[in-house]
Amino acid sequence: MADTTTMPTGRSSARPFDPPAELSKLREKRPLSRLEYPDGHLGWLATSHALVREVLADRRFSVRAELRHLPVGAPAQQPRPAPPGTFSAADPPEHTRYRRLLTGQFTVRRMRQLADHIKAITDEYLDAMERHGSPADLVEVLAKPVPAQVICELLGVPFAERDQFQDHAYALFRLDSGPEELGAAYTAVHEFVRGLVTAKRSAPGDDLLSGLTASDLTDEELVNIGFTLLGAGLDTTANMLALGTFALLAHPDQLAALRAGESTVDQAIEELLRYLSIVPFTVRVALEDVELGGALIKAGETVTVSLAAADRDPGKFPHPDALDLGRPTAGHVAFGHGIHQCLGQQLARVELQVVLPALVNRFPSLRLAVPSEDVPLRTDMLIYGVHHLPVAWDR
Ligand code: HEM
Questions:
Q1: 227-249 tens-digit pLDDT
Q2: Predicted local confidence at residue 297, as pLDDT
Q3: Does residue 1 carry a pLDDT above 60?
Q4: Which of 99, 309, 368, 382 is most buried, with most CB under 10 Å away?
Q5: Do you know which SUPFAM superfamilies this protein is assigned to (predicted)?
Q6: Ligand 1: does its nearest atom lie under 6 Å from the Cβ of 343?
């Protein structure tokens, strides 16, 4: 079909922070394009900020796993409904019920307590980085372990079991895992969370899972909620930390402004979130015929919304391809938009606000240990970032 595209995924190592260039061209030419999915489905791709927000705010679009087609990767064998408790793949009223229970657990008090822990955890890992010595892979020494420890705090994983938990959880995101290994990792994490739920039921603590056991949720639901939080909160924050560091090191003027306090930390983190939009897209399915951007989306058609393209829309953010830590960023969609907007966004913000300034201030001479083009980019994963970030510093 004329004017049909496949999902652009190519990134260039010369411009590692930019979304695939093809997306900008599409946004200029036709911000709602026909998109051919790997399984043969003919759906849509939205690339402008306005259309992306419109789709995400419209209840006539569903997020259910069994309805959607994915724009990249091997076609799913048999799309199946997500198990109970997987609220990220549920529509209202199911979604509303879970989300309400969870929002009640993401309290200001708990986030504040976590912020204190995050400071302590960060210092611990920065000390370890210093002991390790230059050069080091920032992904391994800081970006992966800090979010993992924070999720452990949130879910109430006992200290003695944290290494075991981290190993299982990260096995899920390993690239070199085959389907069997991946299956084994899923089972291991599920079993781990199941054990945790049982423990919290008999001896509740001050953590989120314990808090949820007081509701009428079944064990199955609790396990899947724990699993959803892990899936959504671990790899995202880790990649934002590593890619955020890379972006700062590649923009010395911006890094200097941050160190000098010329832009506030809060502002700087929002701009990094916008600029990097590490969750490049999400998908929705029309439950009925919907008119959108002058086109008719038919019931059952999947719309891929490009969060990365929306956050680089010049109609919304002037000079969108420049990293400008002082710019206004209100309305960015790095955390999505609408009812599924990131549940963990405050937590993610606190992690980024604590870790990134602590890192760049602790190591004033921090720099890449390899040429920028040699940093391995995660062009092959759903969440963008870097596989490794070799950094060096002077003693
Ligand atoms: C910088 C880090 C993060 C980024 C960029 C990010 C991004 C996103 C985005 C774009 C969505 C919306 C997906 C959609 O509409 O389909 C989302 C949803 C979600 N995120 Fe995050 N996230 C981050 C960190 C976290 C953390 C730390 C947690 C939990 C501890 C978390 C938990 C969730 C959950 C549970 C959802 C689903 C919400 C729902 O469906 O109601 N995220 N996130």
A1: 899 888 888 999 999 999 999 99
A2: 98
A3: no
A4: 309
A5: Cytochrome P450
A6: yes
pLDDT higher at 171 or 139: 139
237 lines ligand 1 (CB under 6 A): yes
Residues in the chain: 395
Q: How far is CA 167 from CA 143, 162, 188, 327, in A?
A: 15, 9, 10, 39
Quick check: CB of 232 below 6 Å from ligand 1? yes
Q: Amino acid letter at 80?
A: R
Q: Is the dihedral of CA 327, 333, 337, 341 positive or negative?
A: negative
Q: What are the percentages of helix, strand and coil residues in the chain, rounded to 5? A: 50, 10, 40
Of the candidates 266, 274, 282, the one whose C-alpha atom is nearest the C-alpha of residue 247 is: 274
Cis check: omega of the bond before 8, within 30 degrees of 0: no
Our answer on whether the CB atom of 242 is closer than 6 Å to any ligand 1 atom is: no
Ligand 1 contact via 340 beta carbon (within 6 Å): yes
**pTM, full prediction:** 0.95
Q: Which atom of ligand 1 lies at the shortest distance from residue 87's CA?
A: 40
H/E stretch holding 33? strand 32-36
Assign residue 378 a region: left if phi > 0, alpha if psi is -120 to 50, beta otherwise? beta
Q: Is 354 exposed, middle or buried (0-12, 13-18, 19+ CB in 10 A)?
A: buried
Cα 233 to averaged position of ligand 1 atoms, centre (Å): 7
pLDDT confidence tier of residue 78, bands split at 50, 70 and 90 = low
